[in-house]
Write a structure and sequence with these properties.
Elements: H1 2-19, E1 24-30, H2 36-46, E2 51-55, H3 68-71, H4 84-95, E3 100-106, E4 111-119, E5 124-128, H5 136-139, E6 144-149, H6 152-166, H7 171-190, E7 199-202, H8 208-221
Parallel strand pairs: 1-5, 1-6, 2-5, 6-7
Antiparallel strand pairs: 3-4
Helix pairs in contact: 6-7
Length: 223
């Protein structure tokens, strides 16, 4: 009887492995204010029961050891500001059906909160962020790489609106950061990473035709 149970368990695990659906890991990159978050959200909305959405912004390095004035000097648009090792570890875990504890980052204190967010695996894993394609170890994990390409003038206006509304920034600080770090880092890292994309989408989530085409392809791939 015992041997029979063991054989049944082994057979069940074997069948489960054969029938397990492979994970689809989607990376969405592009400049600040390009519409990548909107695109990511629309894709997730199309698969409410089989997708999860992660933001690169959750993986900024913790700067709680610095004073607020010191941490404010950090170049948050440079790849070195992000904990790509942890992001890579978490994405690998999710693709192997292992839940993760995603950091919660506060832009008010430039540090991670004590709490984390438990993320369960899903068939479609969507990740969005400006620098996702700049690091090979992370870039190579994605099944589909989408770059959102939007006019600079539109992006900067969206950036100003977002930072003033959501991050309690004043106009002068937003302008100063854009000119000193955001634009130079976009030109040095974000823009060039477009070469690694499988698909380039003008306007991101605001491009309904492109969004519909991406979702239609995913629906064909998801069984």
């Amino acid at each position: 009887m015992y041997l029979s149970r063991i054989l049944t368990l082994i057979f069940t695990l074997f069948i489960t492995t054969l029938t397990a659906q492979p994970k689809i890991l989607i990376g969405i990159a592009g400049g600040t204010g390009s519409g990548k978050t909107t695109l990511a959200q629309k894709i997730q909305d199309a698969f409410p029961n089989s997708s999860i959405l992660l933001s690169q912004d959750s993986y900024y390095k913790d700067l709680s050891h610095l004073s607020l004035s010191e941490s404010a000097k950090t170049n948050f648009d440079h790849p070195n500001s992000l904990d790509f090792a942890l992001l890579s570890e978490h994405l690998t875990a999710l693709t192997n059906d292992i839940a993760i504890d995603q950091p919660i980052y506060s832009f008010c204190t430039n540090s991670r909160e004590k709490e984390t967010k438990r993320i369960q695996p899903a068939q479609i894993i969507i990740v969005e962020g400006i620098l996702l394609f700049t690091v090979k170890e992370v870039r190579d994990l994605f099944s589909i790489k989408i770059y959102v390409d939007t006019d600079d003038d539109i992006r900067v206006l969206r950036r100003i609106e977002r930072d003033m509304k959501e991050r309690s920034r004043d106009f002068e600080s937003v302008k100063s950061q854009y000119l000193t770090t955001v634009k130079p880092m976009h030109d040095a890292f974000v823009g060039p990473s477009k070469q690694y994309a499988d698909v380039i989408v003008p306007e991101g989530g605001y491009n309904q035709i492109a969004t519909d085409l991406i979702i239609s392809k995913l629906k064909r791939d998801v069984t």
